[in-house]
Amino acid sequence: MTDKCNYSLLAHNTFGMDVCCHRFMEYETVDEAKEVARRLSDIRAPHLIIGAGSNLLLTTDYDGVVVHSAIKGISIVENGQEATLCCGSGTTWDEVVGWTVSMGYADLVNLSMIPGEVGAAAVQNIGAYGAEVSQTLTGVQAVEVNTGQVVNIGAEDCRYGYRSSRFKQDWKGRYLITHVCFRLNRNAPFILDYGNVRSELERQGLLQPTAAQVRQTIIDIRRQKLPDPKALGNAGSFFMNPVVERGQYDQLVSTYGSMPHYEVDDRHVKIPAGWLIEQCGWKGRSLGRAGVFERQALVLVNRGGATGSDIVALCQAIQTDVQQRFGIVLQPEVNIV
Ligand code: EPU
To answer: Could you list the active site residues?
Structure first.
């Protein structure tokens, strides 16, 4: 295991923030995770569990212990049409998607090219193109920080919602996730009716696409819309898409007839934050060294040398404008520390 003091987090966050933590611990096995739990209990300093830092905005040095899983590996047990997939929490998420697609499973294909690692996927309930990880996730194995015990947590206990779970709420910091398991099915249907996935496939003449073709199409769509963090620091969608009461939606749509929306349930409607931000004139604009991406207004970017405070200032300016114009308070999706 790794246990270092005064450690730079520059390589651990896709926004490219050059900040340090007081101590950094990384575990490669379940036993090492137990050892990390023991040391955390001894030290009693605050701790922050990170994945690949692709949904993280670091605003200052962290005066505590940053913990990262480096447990790698993918294993599968196949049983007829079904399979149980188990992945180390430090495995790169897209490696898992690519591997399952190459094995002939389409369950995770819509989640292609989402940055980050498996453990964070289970914390964040990552989603894209009409799919969420909670639809296939069956359970999580973790070490409880306070007791050092290995626990198996069923998906039903994780209270998955849109980009949320108990790991972000009352369980925050409580578990060091070591493995995440999924149920796959060879007959899993494709979900193509979200955004322009189907029209992109049809444009290529792919009326009955394979999982590999859907994966490539989703990768191409994402590449067009989302900046590569290696070239331009960012953490994907900075805000969540707000869910509003139907009454508020009806009022808004009577003024803004072109407002896109997704049905949530009888009483709620989800509105794309990117559209709200664009309407406020922020798309492509900058505030100091922090900017709003030209091709997707939901993505805030580091134009070079921005600090976490620069990004937060831009976030607040956008929140103020969207609230004044639409009466909607945008909530960050990114974890701001
Ligand atoms: N839109 C605009 N202007 C913009 C951006 C979007 O008008 O600048 C409109 C689009 O025209 C479209 C709608 O907003 O009608 C939705 O846009 P898009 O399909 O790009 O998706 P999104 O709602 O902005 C969500 C997820 C993304 C995910 C995509 C595709 C959240 C917070 N974001 O974005 O997830 O990839 O859908 O499923 O739910 C992430 O979480 O980091 C992420 C990238």
So the answer is: 163, 237, 333
- In short, whether 218's Cβ falls inside 6 Å of ligand 1 is no
Let me know: does 47 contact 63? Beta carbons within 8 Å: no
Pocket test for ligand 1, best of 109, 200, 237, 253 (most atoms within 8 A of CB): 237
In the reported structure, the alpha carbon of residue 81 is separated from the centroid of ligand 1 by a whole-number distance in angstroms of 33
Amino acid at 327: G
Distance 74 CA to ligand 1 centre (A): 30
Half-sphere exposure of 77 (CA within 13 A, CB side): 4
- Tell me if 333 CB under 6 Å of ligand 1: yes
Helix (H, G, I), strand (E, B) or coil at 79: strand
Name residue 277's beta-bridge partners. none
Q: Using a cut of 0.85, tell me whether the model's pTM lies above it.
A: yes
**Ligand 1 atom 28, closest CA:** 128
Q: How far is the CA of 272 from the centre of ligand 1 (A)?
A: 6
> What is the pLDDT tens value at each position of the chain, 337 positions in all?
999 999 999 999 999 999 999 999 999 999 999 999 999 999 989 999 999 999 999 999 999 999 999 999 999 999 999 999 999 999 999 999 999 999 999 999 999 999 999 999 999 999 999 999 999 999 999 999 999 999 999 999 999 999 999 999 999 999 999 999 999 999 999 999 988 999 999 999 999 999 999 999 999 999 999 999 999 999 999 999 999 999 999 999 999 999 999 999 999 999 999 999 999 999 999 999 999 999 999 999 999 999 999 999 999 999 999 999 999 999 999 999 9
DSSP per-residue codes, 177-211: EEEEEEEEETTPPP---STTHHHHHHHTT-SS--H
